[in-house]
Amino acid sequence: MQRTFAIIKPDAVAAGHQGGIIAKIQESGLRVVALKSLRLSKAQAEGFYAVHSARPFFNSLVAFMTQGPVVAMILEGDNAILRWRDLMGPTDATKAPKNTLRGTYGTSIEANATHGSDAPDTAAYEIGFFFNGLELAGL
User: Fold this and answer.
1) H or E element: which one contains 76?
2) Tens-digit pLDDT profile for residues 120-130
3) Catalytic residue numbers, as ranges
4) What is the pTM of this model?
5) What confidence category does residue 91 fall into, taking pLDDT thresholds of 50, 70 and 90?
6) Which residues, in sequence order, are CB contacts of 27 under 8 Å at separation 6+?
């Protein structure tokens, strides 16, 4: 059993797609073991995306991720990281197949509805960034 981290981004939350996205997650056989809605501050978004701080899109990404609430989740299942990434589809929503979350709910490379961890170490870091020890106790 593997865990991964997922975000429903501000564009999808503003459009009211969080229910549809969560339904697709559950239909895929992944289990939502933790979930919360929050609004990232600029400092939190900068910290979360620090790995991209030297990239030209960093400031735009931070501004986008702070424009409204997000839904942070921990997903669990066999091969959860790969399964979640397959369900999301490619980063660029305009190139994502329509049967993926980004193809269904995203509109661009930035406003692509969802985020997901790309490896076990990234998942561990991202889960710890968004969920504290008390929230993780007993999961």
Assistant:
1) strand 70-77
2) 999 999 999 99
3) 115
4) 0.91
5) confident
6) none
